[in-house]
Amino acid sequence: MFQSGPKVARIAPQDAIAKVADETLTLVDIRDPAERAMSGMAKGAVAIPLSTFQMKADPRSPEHHEALKTDKPIALYCASGARSQMAAQAMLQMGYTEVYNLGGLQDWARAGGEVS
């Protein structure tokens, strides 16, 4: 039987913008480099492509990304929100305590978030 994993909450884009600005939330772009090159990236986001995400997000991995802290809130986004949902579920299973799905980059931009 298919298990969907832990429930990941959505975060309102306006909340994410404010929390990234005051550095109380780490924002992660999990799109691949070609996608980022075409549409830009949310200001303040860390780029960790889904292809390397498992290795970079796992706190036990020697390749763990230093921006990812298990006890600091994290929000992920992709193009539509589907890949970020899966990645956020994986992070909860790895022991992260507060992980959100922002959705897609367009959600950030529509809410007034800067894209560079």
TrEMBL record:
Q: Where in this chain does the record put each Rhodanese domain?
A: 21-116
Q: Which organism is it from?
A: Salibaculum griseiflavum
Gene Ontology terms, MF aspect: transferase activity
What is this protein's name? Sulfurtransferase
For this UniProt record, the keywords arranged alphabetically read as follows: Transferase
- One of the Pfam families matching this protein, by short name: Rhodanese
The record's section on InterPro entries has: GlpE_sulfurtransferase (IPR050229), Rhodanese-like_dom (IPR001763), Rhodanese-like_dom_sf (IPR036873)
Superkingdom of origin: Bacteria
